[in-house]
Fold this protein.
Amino acid sequence: MMIRGFLSRLRNDLGIQLLVLYSLFVVPIVIMALAFDQFASDRLRQDIIAGDLTLARVIAEETDTALEYSLLSILEVAKYDAVIAGDNQGMLEIFENVMSARPDVSLIYRLSPDGIMIVHYPVGPISSVGSNFSFRSYFKRAMETESPLIALGRISPTTLEPVTTAVMPIWEGEEFRGVVAANIKLQSFSSTLSRITQGYPESDQFELVIVDSIGDTVASPKPEELLQNLTERLPEIIGDLLAGGEGSRIDHAQDGVERLYSYVPIPSAGWGVIVSQPTSVSFHTPELLHRGVNLVILVISGIGIFFWGALYFNVLQPLEKLAAYSVQVGSDPSGGLDRKERFLEISRREDQIGNLIRSFSWMEESLQARIDELGTLLETSQVVVSSLDPEIVLTTILEQVESLLGIKKSTIVAQDESGGAFISRASRGLSPRYAEELVFQPDEGTSITVRALRIGQPIIIQDVKADAEYQYMRQRAEQEGYQAFAAIPLQTIHAPPAALVVYSPEVNVFTDNNIDLLLSFANQAAMAIENAELFSRSDSQLQIQTSRLEALIQSLEVGLVLENLSGEILYINRMVRELANLPDSELLGKPADELFKAIFEDAENKTEALARLQGVLNSEGEEEITFNLETSAGKKFYRLQGFAVKDGTGFSIGHGQFLQDMTKEHELDRMKTGLISTVSHELQTPLASIKGYATTLLARDVEWEPDSQREFLEIISNEADRLSDLVNNLLDISRIEAGSLTLKKILCSYNEIVERAIQQASPSPGERIKLDVPVDLPKMLIDPYRVEVVVRNLIENAVKYSQSDLPIQVTVSLSDGNLITRVKDFGPGIAKNKRTAVFDSFYRLETGLNRETPGVGLGLAICRGFVKAHGGEIWVDEQETGACLAFTLPVD
């Protein structure tokens, strides 16, 4: 019963609810504060440890950089001839220059192969020249390596100061020539550590040291600690550090103080950096945070008690009165005035409670206004959807504008059907003369309405007289009796452009709320105009036009593809459907590139066509692709050209492509060119030579010497051979294209075929030929005559298209059961877009060199036919310079 009573009071008493909520708020805060204290303390400890570790890393990186720089410097010194040869005078000059650039270097010297000091700089006052330093560990290490190294820290016998040494062994071949070394002042590292420690508040308790590879201190802010070994004091830290490890540990120093140690190795020398400070100093901040959190918890508890009392007397009691006020608002909507008088005292308060009472009153008034606005908009919408007469709808909209906004002058202007001037379609409150004179041309620059239509945004003028930009409107505004003006464009698509224009005799009347309402009315007007326009179009007429257009497009011999702005196919005609060999259900609505990928599947230049496909799909008519397909009717040549689909205003609404069959044109051009070239040159020239020399020999009035007769007969014979070759080529290309080529395969040596092809080549390559043919090639079952023709044609082609002083390379190799032959020249090369066409009949590259040699463009076409008849492939290899033609023959 007690629990039920408490739950009942909890539901009905806001004070108890707030108390429970406050408890639910404060208790988690206290718990979170304690958790935060634990988390933040741990995090601060980690950050402090990470900070010390970061400092150690920075010092290690700087020291590592300095040591590497020293190693690089002594490496460069060892490259001088004077140092290698042991030239004392030359070395002193070099050492002097190095020391002038390296203030951290105290001594540079050269040791002989047996460790004797040859020379050192500076020379005095103590000289160790002639002393034996072969006992030094760095000298022994140098005899086993050719790389520079860093020595252990020590006291220099020459400068009597703590140093480390950058040592570079000098070798000549396998002979050890001694070392060149530079003593680096350890004081320079100690000075850096001193500057760092001075920046810490507790600098006397903050320690920084650098130890070498045996644990000796080589740098410390305290000079008395130099070269002291720390292995016994910090055995675990030194052991882990010299093993290449890094990290942080909490340990007790010799004086019993607990300290935080952070250490990082220095890779280039095998040294390490150790940063340490007492934990009482390093973890002071987390301890302060812990105390602060406890204090905050106490303060929050005290503030909560005070807050509860203030909340009850200043908020809870007034809210009970406000609750009674809200009940009266809901039960008696008409008693607003009496209600305001009864709660006038509370509403005068300047705090939120007073604002809440005033907000209730304003909300009551605003809700009533919104209800009236919604009723008006609903009435307007009913008129729009119930009538297709634009005059009735537009007049009703203007009546509602006047009823709701109190604006008595308004009009809707629209462009006439001929696309000319803008005129008033409906008006209210305007004088007849003013309404008749509302005529604007589309290019009129001073018309506010035309400007609003052009930019597609409302234009509001709050005061025509005060706005200097619209001074030209002042006289008309005074005559018609308005001071404020608004032009709102209607968002029409199919109907002519239109705008809602309203006038007010008062200034600054167009508030944000009024503008929103005007935009709503403008949308209603646009809907009315659009509905009327669409209704005026005849569905039957559209269907007739569509059927005619469909029949026309389907009967075209040109393929047509139409797509939307997203690249999805909307329409294709018969020719495209037949090429794709797919039903409409698998094409319509799909991306256009999928259609053309299916068409390009059997294209010879598929890669090139696909690479340029996107350019055509997005083209405005300037981009096109030509490709050929192997069809049941033979090879077909096509041209694909893109174009943009635009509406009457020039706005792009999609893309399209034309697909033309260019086979006849291509074949006619190619055959015409080939035949004309053959008849005019390749046949006529040798025939003319034969005829001329035969006539000369038959002349009766001249008796020729036997040598001259033989020369003429040889010319006649050569020209006859040339005619025979041409006829044979024409016969071969005819057999290839007719598919009647018959191979006479025998087991033969490919090496011999290549040799015969080189000997029979005309023009001969001579000494230009460079062969790379394995001598152990297996014998192959091939037609030796046809393969020899292929190799010879490729060699002759290389001779024709390259200068006479450039080599020609013939390379043969075996790969994956195929014999690959490559013929490479260093001529002008073959353009990428011509690498397929060069294998077509009667095709010749225009380079300037081909005009100097005979030919009709059949050689490579014959090569392709013979290679494919053997089951191989022929192509043009990618080359930076020249051209490389390659073909394969199956070995098995």
